């Protein structure tokens, strides 16, 4: 808790990993480097059955259940699939890595700014962001950003190319040889890519622009999965599922790609017991699909508890907590505290 007079009510950090939206194409595994066709969304009208949990009143009355079954569950949905002559999904996006984690984009307390800068520079000098960079590079190499499209793919290849005019570097990964539950790989390509990312996060270079292409052989005419749009008022729309497209091309939200890249937190208190593997870097360790926060203030494992100590001249007992705090700052956000 900050003392009165040392409260920072305006505090923000710009994100340092900036992915673009992902564009989805269909191709063949043999011709994946030659030709790829943009995938379009398909609108379907389907007749489903009633399958939701019934109330006790309806469960106890077979006639009411029969009446519900007679009424079809009509839906209009978006879908996306490869063509009959295509067996491979191509996902294309770019990723910009920025420097400047040591400097908030906004801070209205000069004393706090000094103590934070001292702590951040100490971390940079000792660690050089090598651990975080290695984990980000691993999530590029293992194609975690494909999400559901990664499942059931016979082959997955990831091509990465640096687009900076002063950098000539390219990497090629076989994602099927890499797991998504740990970051212990000693793959030389991952180490090389991580080195380029660490150069920027540590401030030795100002930015790095990467072009990333992932190819997943999922099978001819198989469904693929773009991002689903959030529809706040479905009652007024015709569709029950709306997928994301950019200029008519099926796509994946940049936020979803970013979430995959920052899924590196294996330091949360329940990691061994939870058995869900790494979670995304979030101030409270939120995993929304499980309805649970894995970093709570009661455990003193949340970002704000750790950051207040770290940034105000204190010390954290575990190096893993420092990695986590700096990863949240790489994620970016607004972290000011109330001055009331």
Let me know the average pLDDT.
92
Tell me the overall shape: globular
C-alpha Rg, in Å? Answer: 23 Å
Q: pLDDT below 50 for ≥5 consecutive residues: which ranges?
A: none
Strand content: 15-25%
Number of DSSP-assigned strands? 18
Largest sheet: 9 strands, antiparallel
Topology:
Blueprint lengths: L10 E3 L3 E3 L2 E6 L9 E2 L3 E7 L7 H4 L2 H9 L2 E7 L8 E11 L7 E2 L2 H18 L2 H12 L13 E8 L7 E5 L13 H14 L5 E11 L27 E2 L2 E4 L1 H8 L1 E3 L5 H4 L4 E2 L5 E2 L4 E2 L9 H9 L7 H13 L1 E2 L6
Antiparallel strand pairs: 1-8, 1-18, 2-7, 3-4, 3-7, 3-13, 5-6, 7-11, 9-10, 9-11, 12-13, 14-15, 16-17
For the structure shown, list the relevant keywords.
340 residues, alpha+beta, nine-stranded antiparallel beta sheet, three-stranded antiparallel beta sheet, 9 helices, 24% strand, globular
Compact overview of the structure:
The chain has 340 residues and is of the alpha+beta class. 27% of the residues lie in helices and 24% in strands.
Describe this structure in words.
With 340 residues, the protein is α+β, with helices and mostly antiparallel strands. 27% of the residues lie in helices and 24% in strands. The protein is built from nine helices and 18 strands. The strands form five sheets. Strands 2, 3, 4, 7, 9, 10, 11, 12 and 13 form a nine-stranded antiparallel beta sheet that branches. A hairpin with a 2-residue loop joins strand 12 (245-246) and strand 13. The two termini are 13 Å apart. The mean pLDDT is 92.
């Amino acid at each position: 808790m900050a003392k009165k007079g040392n409260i920072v009510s305006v505090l923000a950090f710009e994100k340092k990993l900036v992915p673009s939206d992902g564009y989805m194409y269909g191709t063949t595994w043999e011709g994946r480097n030659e030709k790829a066709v943009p995938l379009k969304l398909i609108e379907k009208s389907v007749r489903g059955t009633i399958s939701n949990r019934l109330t006790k009143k309806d469960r106890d009355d077979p006639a009411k259940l029969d009446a519900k079954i007679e009424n079809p569950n009509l839906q209009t949905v978006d879908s996306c699939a490869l063509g009959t002559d295509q067996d491979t999904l191509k996902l294309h996006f770019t990723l910009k890595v920025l420097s400047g984690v040591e400097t908030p984009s906004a801070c209205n307390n000069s004393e706090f700014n000094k103590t934070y800068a001292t702590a951040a520079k100490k971390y940079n000098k000792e660690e050089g962001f090598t651990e975080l960079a290695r984990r980000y590079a691993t999530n590029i190499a293992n194609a975690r950003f494909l999400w559901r499209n990664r499942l059931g793919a016979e082959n997955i290849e990831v091509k990465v190319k640096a687009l900076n005019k002063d950098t000539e570097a390219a990497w090629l990964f076989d994602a099927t040889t890499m797991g998504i539950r740990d970051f212990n790989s000693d793959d030389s390509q991952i180490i090389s890519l991580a080195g380029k990312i660490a150069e920027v996060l540590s401030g030795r270079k100002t930015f790095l622009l990467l072009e990333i292409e992932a190819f997943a052989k999922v099978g001819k005419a198989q469904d693929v999965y773009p991002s689903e749009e959030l529809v706040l008022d479905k009652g007024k729309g015709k569709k029950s599922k709306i997928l994301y497209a950019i200029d008519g091309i099926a796509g994946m939200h940049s936020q979803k790609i970013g979430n995959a890249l920052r899924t590196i937190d294996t330091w949360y208190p329940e990691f061994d017991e939870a058995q869900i593997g790494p979670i995304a870097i979030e101030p409270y360790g939120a995993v929304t699909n499980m309805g649970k926060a894995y970093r709570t203030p009661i455990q003193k494992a949340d970002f704000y508890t750790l950051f207040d100590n770290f940034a105000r001249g204190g010390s954290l007992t575990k190096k893993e907590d420092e990695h986590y705090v700096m990863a949240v700052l790489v994620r970016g956000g607004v972290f000011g505290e109330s001055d009331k």
